[in-house]
Design goal:
Strand content: under 5%
Oligomer: single chain
Shape: globular
CATH topology: Serine Threonine Protein Phosphatase 5, Tetratricopeptide repeat
CATH superfamily: Ankyrin repeat-containing domain
Largest sheet: none
Order of helices and strands: HHHHHHHHHH
């Protein structure tokens, strides 16, 4: 069905109204996989980009979960697909779906937990950027997970370095702003 929806049957892709396409993007198979979750799971970038175009206009198909409780970010982290996370981040930053970053699947893992276990600094950094509203809280949680779950010193060093750089940037900005207010500059 997904191949038909996305036009992979060596024929001209069928034309659908926007509403029909949106409905098909929210349809699930027996395991709870929507077309979005399926193409992310199989790392099918061409199909992902086609679905992504529809999702940018109407975000209803993003919040889908498999039978094991995994969302699209869990699957991207499991498959170590940083490009898809970067594209999804553009949608997530404009919506109220940031709670997906904190959700746990049946194994009790958040997307960040899975990334720490896979020791993927690039994806961890992208998840951090998505969580920029409460970055310090999330960094503390990720540090705790890196120490407690995996005893992963490389990830701990990376997170501490990122936290130190962010703190220095904040302090510099704060000092510059206070100097402007006091008329020192």
């Amino acid at each position: 069905m997904i191949g038909f929806i996305l036009g992979h049957d060596n024929k001209d892709p069928p034309t659908f109204t926007f509403g029909e396409a949106q409905f098909m993007l929210t349809a699930e198979d027996v395991n709870g996989f929507t077309p979005l979750l399926t193409v992310v799971y199989h790392n099918n970038l061409v199909s992902f980009l086609k679905i992504f175009k529809v999702l940018r206009a109407n975000k209803n198909g993003i919040e889908a979960y498999t039978k094991t409780g995994s969302n699209v970010l869990h699957i991207c982290c499991e498959n170590k697909n940083s490009y898809m996370i970067r594209l999804l981040g553009k949608i997530l930053q404009q919506t109220t779906f940031k709670h997906m970053l904190d959700e746990r699947n049946q194994n009790g893992n958040t997307p960040a937990d899975m990334t720490i276990k896979n020791r993927n600094k690039e994806i961890l950094n992208q998840l951090y950027v998505l969580q920029n509203n409460d970055g310090k809280k999330s960094i503390i949680g990720q540090l705790h997970a890196a120490v407690m779950i995996e005893n992963n010193l490389e990830t701990v060093k990376y997170l501490l370095k990122k936290q130190i750089l962010e703190t220095k940037a904040y302090e510099t900005l704060r000092d510059d702003n206070s100097a402007n207010i006091n008329g020192e500059i």
